[in-house]
Amino acid sequence: MIEAVTAPTDEQLIAEYAEGRTDRFELLVDRYSQELFHFLVRFTGGTAAAEDIVQETFLQVHLSAGGFDPSRRLRPWLFTIAANKARDMLRGRARRPEVPLDATIDEDRDHGKRFLDFLAGADDEPGQPMEIAEQQQVVKRIVEQLPAHLRETLILAYYHKFAYKDMAEILGIPLGTVKSRLHAAVAAFAEAYREATGQEAGAR
């Protein structure tokens, strides 16, 4: 009887990479680059920024692999690095705003492709009803417009399913603050969603 091969855990991969197994780093990148990218796109509002921060995050992982505490879980640590770098970028880009996600990327302003069209593939199912697709676009716009600290908390909780204790580690805040901030984020989102859908209903 052939025994099933068990995939190494994240913590095993980082430990083996620190010991010199360079192929383990590539496995970590394959395992987490897309998830980190989607988190950073939602948080920063820009695909170029997200790509840069993903690269910076894995560079930091490479540099810090030898000092990683094996008693910790790797996934929250990765998101901590990425979130810190994203916050630094957001603080520093006030004078250099990026292209908004709803901007067109070709000369046809009425029918051209938007950045949001490319992001839709990460979350949307093909062939879904138009109303659902429109609703998802509304949700994305509202999330993008939330204050950064609320947007980050909402994304970690609902898109990436982190537990409160992991979010506290990633955000660098007490557990109680995570809960109150998430409550505030949900309330802000709900109010904005009611306003957006009410305006659309009134316009029809």
Describe the secondary-structure layout.
Elements: H1 10-18, H2 23-44, H3 47-64, H4 74-92, H5 115-123, H6 130-145, H7 148-159, H8 164-171, H9 175-203
Write a concise keyword list for the protein shown above.
mainly alpha, disordered C terminus, elongated, Arc Repressor Mutant, subunit A, 0% strand, 2 domains, 204 residues, 9 helices
Describe what this molecule looks like in 3D.
This protein has 204 residues and is mainly alpha-helical. The chain has two domains: 100 residues, Rna Polymerase Sigma Factor, Chain: A (Orthogonal Bundle); 91 residues, Orthogonal Bundle (Arc Repressor Mutant, subunit A).
**Separation of the first and last Cα atoms:** 65 Å
User: Which stretches of 5+ consecutive residues score pLDDT under 50?
Assistant: 95-109, 113-124, 200-204
Mean pLDDT: 81
CATH architecture of the largest domain: Orthogonal Bundle
CATH class of the largest domain: Mainly Alpha
Over all CA atoms, what is the radius of gyration?
19 Å
Q: Which band does the percent of strand residues land in? A: under 5%
Global structural class: mainly alpha
Helix content: 55-70%
**Any idea how many domains?**
2
